[in-house]
# Entry
Amino acid sequence: MSSKIQYVVSHTSLFEERNKMTLWMRSLLKLGLCTALMVVTGCGSSEDPELTGLVPVSGQVYLDGQPLSHAGVTFLPQETGMGRPCFGTTDESGMFVLQDAAQRSGCPVGRCKVVVTKFARPDGSPLPSDMDGATAAMEGVEHIPPQYSDAEKTVLEAIVPDSGDEFTFQLTSSPSGKRARRPGA
# Structure
């Protein structure tokens, strides 16, 4: 009877050891597959065609002849495979520098729609950066006409060359895009 118990105990120990070995091998296999996947996909490296080819792009935005401060500038690539949109914010002198969502400086080469927005308080002062979205939506208004601020309606376009470039955008606050005339002028 003691040999029967010994056989069951040793058989159970072998089963537990085999189970531990199987778990260890599965873990090793998963690690290997994850590593291979990262190597094949590049793990978001600079080899990703969506992320390569950024060139320096900066510029200045004017509204009715005055530098437009605290405005968002977005370049929306229009050609297939060109990359993702790039963004910038104008400073007090209306100057902006573009970067992508990963905060790399530049913009893809090619034709882009350009959108300029200034979502602020009705008096034009900026909304606090720590304001939550719901409050900002209630308190803020768009100060730029739709022909510049709406991605579907924008009349602004830029052709970004291989060397990058500086762009100047002269906007008007009149909805037609033409300067407002004084009566009798």
